[in-house]
Amino acid sequence: MSATPKALAKYRDKLLALRAEILSQGDVSIEPSRSDPVAVGGDEDGQALSEMYQVIASRRNRVRTGDLGRIHAALKRLDENPDAFGLCSECGEPIGKRLELLPFVELCVECQQARDGSPKGPGRRHLRDFR
Ligand SMILES: [Zn+2]
Question: How far is the CA of 92 from the centre of ligand 1 (A)?
Fold first, then answer.
């Protein structure tokens, strides 16, 4: 059940395009918009706001860095072990459609959900323990 060379070439193209897209976005700028009513709020509010922007910016950077890492890893898997590309690294089943959208994922939907647990709300973190 390995992907055809044609499919692999398609995934490679997608990965390279994704990588180019992320890299083309450059660094995330930390810049409060000028129309913000913060100017009247005094230094303290301005300080708080700029800290908030920095938190948002660094979170965005983390996501981008994480995606880049996964894209690199996927390209490496594609080169080193093309037969296994597109198979879930946990259960070995084909990842299927999900790979069309996110060619860098390593897990099928089921394994990803099992790993993430339930993302909806607190208090359900141990849901997977009750299978
Ligand atoms: Zn799986």
Answer: 6
The tens digit of pLDDT for each residue in 25-48 reads 876 555 555 555 555 556 778 888
Cα(118) to centroid of ligand 1, in Å? 17
- State residue 93 phi and psi, 5-degree precision: -80, 155
CA 68 / ligand 1 centre spacing (Å): 22
Q: How much is the pTM?
A: 0.64
- Tokens linked to 48: 């708080």
Distance CA 105, CA 98 (A): 8
Q: What angle do CA 73, 23, 108 make, to 5 degrees?
A: 35
Nearest to 103 by CA among 5, 9, 26: 9
